[in-house]
Amino acid sequence: MIRIAVRAVALALALAGAASAQEAAVTRRATELREAPAETARSLAALPAQAPVTRGTGRSGPWVQVRTEAGASGWLHLFDLGPAGTASASGASDVVGSALRGVTGLFGNRQPPQASASAGIRGLEAQDIARANPEPAAVTRMEALRQNEADARAFAAGAQLQPVAIQPLPAP
User: pLDDT per position in the chain (172 positions), as tens?
Assistant: First the structure.
């Protein structure tokens, strides 16, 4: 389970890192513009879904520095951003995005970990995948980040994580 979560986060970070600096973007859901790259950082502004922003060059883990149309500069979580001109995701996609935000918090968040689960990456649709340009070198770099079970268990023990049984969803 941890290996899948690590791969999902690594893929999301790799895809987000491919985006060029100073790129037009929109918020995928209502969110808070943060003063620093952390969920606990002071909120500078509440942004509604589909608020236009410009990605900056700053990155800190899953956080991206942005500038609003009003000129405010701050940080947004990468799962809250999408390319300009896309429709807002809703429903199950918001749940998945929130879950993935919880997973990314395991890699640098100093707050107590919370149980979370994920089923995919919010924002990837069929047309996004069809337009994707595979990068074999990026896959090789991601594979180098792979952790074995012993490493995952050591990380979990160091972070004082406790196993939680999660019942699978019923088949559709």
Answer: 565 655 655 555 555 554 445 788 999 889 999 999 988 899 999 999 999 999 988 888 888 999 999 999 999 998 888 888 755 444 444 545 555 555 555 555 444 444 444 444 456 667 777 777 778 888 888 888 888 889 888 988 998 988 888 888 888 8
In this structure, is residue 164 part of a structural domain? no
* CATH number of the CATH domain containing 84: 2.30.30.40
> What's the CA gap between 43 and 34, in Å, rounded?
5
Q: What is the pTM of this model?
A: 0.44
8 A C-beta contact, residue 5 and residue 152? no
In a domain, 171, yes or no: no
